[in-house]
Specification:
Layout (H helix, E strand, L loop, with lengths): L1 E2 L3 H9 L8 E4 L5 H6 L1 H18 L15 H25 L3 E4 L1 E4 L4 E6 L2 E6 L3 E3 L3 E3 L12 E2 L1 H4 L8 E5 L3 H13 L2 E6 L10 H13 L3 E4 L7 E3 L2 E6 L2 E5 L1 E4 L3 E3 L13 E2 L2 E2 L13 E3 L11 H17 L12 E3 L4 E6 L2 H6 L4 E7 L4 H5 L6 E7 L4 E8 L2 H13 L4 H5 L10 H10 L6
Parallel strand pairs: 1-2, 1-7, 2-3, 7-20, 9-16, 10-11, 10-16, 11-12
Antiparallel strand pairs: 4-5, 5-6, 8-17, 13-14, 14-15, 18-19, 21-22, 22-25, 23-24, 24-25
Helix pairs in contact: 1-8, 3-4, 3-6
Amino acid sequence: MVIGGGPGGYAAALYAHNFGLKVALVEKAIVGGVCLTRGCIPAKTWLHAADVYRTVKEAGHYGIESSEPTVNWGRALERKHEVVNQLVTGLGGLLRNRKVDVFNGFGRLAGPKKVIVAGEHGEEEIEANNVIIATGSEARSIPGYDIDGERIVTSDHALDWPERPEKVAIIGAGAIGCEFASLLSDFGSEVWLFEMLDQVVPGSEPQAAKALERALTERGVNVRTGTQIGNPVPVHGRLQVPFGEESVDVDVVLVAVGRAPQTENIGLDTVNVGTDRGYITVDPSTQQTSEPGVYAVGDVVAGVPQLAHAGFAEAIAAVTYIATGTSAPVDYRAIPLVVYSHPELASVGLTEAQAKEAGYEIEKTRHPFAGVGRAIIIGENQGIVKIVSEKDGPILGATVVGPSAGEMIHELMYAVAWEALPAEAAAFIHAHPTLSEAVGETLLGAAGRSLH
């Protein structure tokens, strides 16, 4: 039995087909979860629309003459719905084809091997040999900023704005905050991006964060890092957001300060499941909780990145152990993180700071996109590739900020996962002209024999 139909939950249900397991899945809303309906997919659909608009607007730079483009916000919103509906329908078909019994309702544990499904027609008790908790997460808020869905919103509401807001304050410059700052500024909104810590995308390589901040600033985003905000004050139909000795009046405030696990009222008190600040603790080799036969995957798991693809991997690990008794733990070192802003920022493995904190003697190498032919051709030659490796040892981590960073990071994912030496990875040839040559050049530099 799987409780929750988001990436971790539906991946577990689908993967169980490989072992001939009988599976039921309960979802309180729409199968696909936050990622498919209110997160990853709709957000990236909006970001692509912003990319298209920006490309057409700048077409004259490439010798393509056209009239000034306009944004049909309603059509863009409609297309977002179409993309989501297509994927939700496809997922439903996959679940049916794999003979997963899907229950619509709120699922909660009623003991180690029992799940109560509260649906439209009452409650139903289902027994299962194993239960996987995949209830996901919800947007957090902060004191003074009570979410009302209109003036103070989360990404859940922002993805369905009926019209473009003229002036927006975004609180939190993590992945979600930077993505919304990027797409809204491209569409012409005035954006103020506030971050309490000293850089955007906290925890990322400082040089990469600075490159992204610079690109956002050049496109008109008012970035304020290391800044504490005060409580909002209604002023003439707007909200005044104080920061330091200043303030700004905006139409809407988007709160993007992270996500909290959805573990309330799911019956954890009926089983021996350990928790840490609301997150569920698991054995990382199996995803099993302290209650035998009860597992957890995805955003509810303590101490792991809240990423859809991490949920996929954890689901595979849990189902593999349930079906075979064999551990197949997730290698979190090799899980990429991508910020889909413009430019993109992607990373895998350890940053320089993390490697030093772990006690490694390191070597670091950087190569800019500035001289990369393909990057110049497409007019996106800002950004860097950075590789961190152990001195006389393997590659420990890498970061790319620049065009198509989210695609290029996977080459470096393999290097980190397979503990490749820089010289080994540098021996392979990259096609010319490609963006990936920036990775090749960085690997050559890390091997001690740079070319350009």
